Amino acid sequence: MRILTHHRVMSLPIENVQDYPRPPALEAAGAPLSVRLGETLLAATDRGWRVLETHHAPTYYLPVAAFGAALRPASGGSLCEWKGRAAYFDLITGDTVLRGVAWGYPDPTPAFLPLKGHVALYCRAPLICRVGDVRVEPQPGGFYGGWVTPNLRGTIKGAPGTEWW
User: Fold this and answer.
1) 11 phi and psi, to 5 degrees?
2) What class, spelled out in words, does domain 2-151 have in CATH?
3) Is 18 helix (H, G, I), strand (E, B) or coil?
4) What residue spans define the domains of the chain?
């Protein structure tokens, strides 16, 4: 697969999700990230992060600042044994409110400290998310927030029967 970015051609390497580590690893995204609602660009960055965990599609994190005023705190929260306590956010543009579609770690564990000030999103309709020029698909199921790109191989958890691997 080829990705065009900044008039350069960059390849996404083939990756097998079974080769990702547990506990998960944190690394720079390695490609520009963008989020759109229809034709409206909600966020774009070349300073994102991704978390790689066994049997998961990578979860991408964008700086909160990339969203401008489009994020507002939402109710609820959760706890990740690796990253810490998550806070949720609504995404707002015009009259559209996508409730609880984003999350971040206001006080991440030391291993994930670079995620402070960043959020991940469930990239499902009506959002259009891209890694470089590649449009992503959401991780199967409704719980996990990974972004599936065509370079991924292996079984990605989230579909019925795979949730608790």
Assistant:
1) -100, 140
2) mainly beta
3) helix
4) 2-151
